[in-house]
Amino acid sequence: MSPGAIFSIYRKYIREVRRLPHIYLRQFYQIQGSDTFRRVLQTEPEGMRRTKLKRILKGLRRLQLANTGNHIAFNRMLDVAYGRVGKLRYELLEPLLSDPRATRPPPIIPGNEKSRPPVYSTELRALLTSAYSRKNPLKDKDLAFPPTLPERARPGSEEAKLLGPLSKRREVNTRWRFFTTEVNKVLPPLQISVEPPSSDSGTNGDATQPRCIGFEETNLLQQVFDLAGYTCISPLPTNRRQSGPGTTPERSRNPFDGKLPVRWLRRRYRELLGRLPILTYHPAKSESHSYTVSIPRNALMGGKLQASRLHFVDGEDLAWLRDITSR
């Protein structure tokens, strides 16, 4: 395909990006699109260029669907822009895959430095064992001894006595395969929140600071909170008797651009909050329990409200329920 045809597709892409309802989305996809199209133009083999261009056209169709109100396409765009999938997700997870403060475990195969087992950082342990950052949370014992590892890996087990000890190379491969597989199921946080230390905790200022990861120096997480507000922003009704010829009815501030309904957009961002775990650092707790994972109260998980936002059933509700069921 000629460069002129590629530039024509790029102009269509930019037009769709300008229709996105928020400035962060427009900036993210404009930068991503410029890098992607630049790589396509720098690709020499025609077959590889067509393959990359086909992927771009697929993203362009997703942009067009998102701008017309397709919630599946819009959710996918939010996931890419906020690191739920794609390259940004790996960049958010990468600092958590190692812990410079932890001591390196000894190699499983003596004398082979590459046979050291993986290190689970404190932040990664909290994410792996939480139901808010993955569907099936692990237990602490699974991190010490993976469930995919045969019992023969335990020196004193019955299987080891009957069948002999497990191969050290197989143990190394199993531990690393389990580590890689389970990490790929984790939804990374955008940043680490810090719980203010209490006055009687006795911790100094240096010990209460966790590692800086992700969008630590930005207000991106707070921006998502603002975009996923509870109330739907809609124009106030006009009272003809009170409005004169020189007065205009007051309207609530709309944080979005474009023609998509504000209530629909807020619901998409509240669903995004259900996929954005908040990693909180507690300086007063012990090292093994210094991080907790949660999600915001106004988040939607699987299109449903959290149980914490549902009202408790009181005596009046129970009486009404008995009356309804007895009819």
Topology:
Elements: H1 3-18, H2 23-42, H3 46-67, H4 71-81, H5 87-93, H6 122-128, H7 140-144, H8 158-163, H9 168-183, E1 192-194, H10 220-227, H11 262-273, E2 278-281, E3 291-294, E4 300-301, E5 304-305, H12 315-325
In short:
This protein is mainly α and 327 residues long. It has helices at 3-18, 23-42, 46-67, 71-81, 87-93, 122-128, 140-144, 158-163, 168-183, 220-227, 262-273, 315-325, and strands spanning 192-194, 278-281, 291-294, 300-301, 304-305.
Structure description:
Helix 1 runs antiparallel to helix 2 and helix 1 runs parallel beside helix 3. A hairpin with a 2-residue loop joins strand 4 and strand 5. The chain has about 325 residues and is mainly alpha-helical. It starts with a helix and ends with a helix. Among the domains are: about 80 residues, no CATH class; about 80 residues, no CATH class. About 45% of the residues lie in helices and about 5% in strands. This is LYR motif-containing protein Cup1-like N-terminal domain-containing protein. It comes from Pisolithus tinctorius Marx 270. InterPro entries: Cup1-like_N. Pfam families: LYRM2-like.
